[in-house]
């Protein structure tokens, strides 16, 4: 397997844009990624497109808008991990030599969609076990079992919303205090409204390349690991505060990269709710004193564009590793990690958990 480089990244603003279409959002991100890579679109070998709510054929619809047709276009759906899985598929294809230049797109238009509507096939959902309720159950167990306090939950939102205010693409971000977070309306006890990430419209895109094909005058970011696991049955004894799918994916990613949690300088961690970050950081083995967590604002600060979220995380990591993140730059990181979980049908703890590790090329 050969090295894979992140040759170009692009992202739209994340927010509520009811007058924009999927094709418009996705096209903007693609054009930005191609320009960042210095790549003519005719050189692409394939494209992988993550989306959840678009209703099918999203990849060809988005790419036709920017004149990319004829090549293999793979549509990927894995709930909130859709963009992350699309990136993994592209990385594996390039690493194997099957393709040399691949485009990854994550795109979502949530305006007008009831994204938390239960599925009729999931009786638990119909009875009220929506995602806020699931994460609230985890939060209750965390408070009672592990001694985490309500203030510590609220501080996750405070940190990430503050970070989002320094991210020009996070149009929904607002600075808040812990008191404001705890006083906001209750959604699912103990999670208040400001502890829940806002769903957003947006898109992100990445060009991945075989080594040396696209050279720019800047640090080269490489993919050290691209690991994924699917969920397992909840019909067993399980500690819901462990984040088992993430823990398993992280073990694979660290082994593939030849690194450990102490080697990670910056991480984009899945935080659709405050408790999500706490569980994910623990499952990844990260130390907040060592690793900068969600400097781009995370889902709580940037917004959660579902199918675009995983690609947005990887774009942010790339900017951080290149030293191009501006006011939100987290020092001079050399290794970063992105983690996403796709929520699943009832009876499974996830659809997919995905962990990627990126590094600045060692000779730079």
TrEMBL record:
Residues 6-208 form the Thiolase N-terminal domain. This is Thiolase family protein. Residues 228-286, 289-343 form the Thiolase C-terminal domain. One of its GO terms (molecular function) is acyltransferase activity, transferring groups other than amino-acyl groups. SUPFAM superfamilies: Thiolase-like (SSF53901). It comes from the Bacteria. Gene3D superfamilies: 3.40.47.10. Pfam families: Thiolase_C_1, Thiolase_N. InterPro entries: Thiolase (IPR002155), Thiolase-like (IPR016039), Thiolase_C_2 (IPR055140), Thiolase_N (IPR020616). It comes from Amycolatopsis rhizosphaerae.
């Amino acid at each position: 397997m050969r090295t894979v480089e992140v040759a170009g990244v692009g992202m739209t603003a994340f927010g509520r844009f009811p007058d924009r279409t999927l094709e418009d959002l996705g096209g903007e991100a693609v054009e930005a990624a191609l320009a960042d890579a210095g790549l003519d679109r005719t050189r692409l070998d394939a494209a992988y497109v993550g989306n959840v709510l678009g209703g099918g054929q999203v990849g060809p619809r988005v790419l036709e808008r920017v004149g990319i047709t004829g090549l293999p276009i793979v549509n990927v759906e894995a709930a909130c991990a859709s963009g992350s899985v699309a990136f993994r598929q592209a990385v594996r294809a390039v690493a194997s030599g099957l393709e040399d230049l691949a485009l990854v797109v994550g795109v979502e238009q949530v305006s007008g969609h009831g994204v938390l509507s239960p599925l009729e096939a999931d009786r638990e959902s119909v009875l009220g076990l929506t995602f806020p309720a699931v994460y609230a159950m985890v939060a209750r167990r965390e408070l009672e079992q592990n001694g985490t306090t309500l203030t510590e939950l609220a501080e996750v939102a405070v940190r990430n919303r503050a970070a989002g205010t320094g991210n020009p693409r996070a149009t929904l971000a607002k600075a808040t205090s812990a008191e404001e977070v705890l006083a906001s309306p209750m959604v699912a006890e103990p999670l208040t409204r400001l502890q829940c990430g806002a769903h957003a419209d947006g898109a992100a895109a990445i060009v991945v390349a075989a080594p040396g094909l696209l050279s720019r005058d800047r640090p080269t970011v490489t993919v050290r690991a691209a690991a994924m696991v699917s969920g397992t049955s909840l019909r067993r004894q399980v500690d819901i505060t462990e984040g088992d799918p993430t823990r398993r994916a992280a073990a694979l990613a660290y082994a593939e990269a030849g690194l450990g949690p102490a080697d990670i300088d910056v991480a984009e961690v899945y935080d659709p709710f405050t408790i999500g970050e706490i569980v994910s950081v623990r499952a990844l083995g990260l130390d907040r004193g060592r690793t900068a967590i969600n400097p781009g604002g995370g889902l709580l600060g940037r917004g959660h564009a579902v199918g675009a979220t995983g690609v947005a995380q990887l774009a942010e990591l790339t900017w951080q590793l290149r030293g191009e993140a501006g006011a939100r730059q987290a020092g001079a990181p050399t290794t970063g990690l992105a983690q996403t979980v796709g929520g699943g049908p009832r009876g499974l703890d996830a659809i997919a958990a995905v962990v990627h590790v990126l590094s600045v090329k060692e000779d730079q």
